[in-house]
Amino acid sequence: MVILQQACEYNFFVEKNPFKEHRFQVKINWNKLPTNTIKLNINGAFFKATLEAGLGGVFRNKDGDWIFRYCRSAYASSVMHCELMALHEGLNIAKHLDLCNIEIEIDSTDSILMLNENNPNLSNLILECRLLMYQLKHPILRHNFREGNEIAHLLAKEALKNFKISRCVHHARPPCFVEHQLLKEKHGFSFKLKYVSTSVCEKLAKFENENILRDYARTV
């Protein structure tokens, strides 16, 4: 009887615990765009010991075809500083190329929040990003998981790996180390399944994460 009671308690608290937060399966990938829209994926890589940073970003059309990429090495004070510099670089390029109909993806929710808050250490950079966003007619800035931001991540890592302070490097052709990933994303073969808790789903939905909006919203 005691063993049976213990088994029932285990089943209640572990397998059917009503207080246990539900987790949803989310398919994480790079999402294609509406017609005449360009997507900018950005990322930053940071090495705290030396304060070295790599900034990376890539512009692609609605089908995932390559348009333009940038890489740059820089010094940063923090991961946040690094991410905002990568965003600032991409916004500057978008303004120079007169790309108004763009969407921007980043895998840092803190960076998105920072644009709406004040930080005395990064205030000038934040203000410059806000101004560029205004000049670009307030493009959508949304969150994506790292797995859906892989090419920007690879570009940032490369800039950090080959650290050299110089002008930003621009290329209209994809470098060899991202070609395989680019083809996988373009044809929908690059994705990862992840189980995400309800609270995280609700948080990321507020940051317009398209994978969450597609898979989580469908279940609620």
Characterize the structure shown.
- Helix 2 runs parallel beside helix 4 and helix 5 packs antiparallel against helix 6.
- The chain has 220 residues and is an alpha/beta fold.
- The protein has a domain at 37-187: Nucleotidyltransferase, domain 5, CATH 3.30.420.10.
- Strands 6-5-2-3-4-7 form a six-stranded mixed sheet, sandwiched between helices.
- 40% of the residues lie in helices and 25% in strands.
- It has eight helices and eight strands; from the N terminus they run H-E-E-E-E-H-E-H-H-E-H-E-H-E-H-H.
- Strand 3 and strand 4 (66-75) form a beta hairpin.
Q: How would you concisely characterize the structure shown here?
A:
Helices cover 40% and strands 25% of the residues. The protein is α/β, with parallel strands linked by helices and 220 residues long. One of its GO terms (molecular function) is nucleic acid binding.
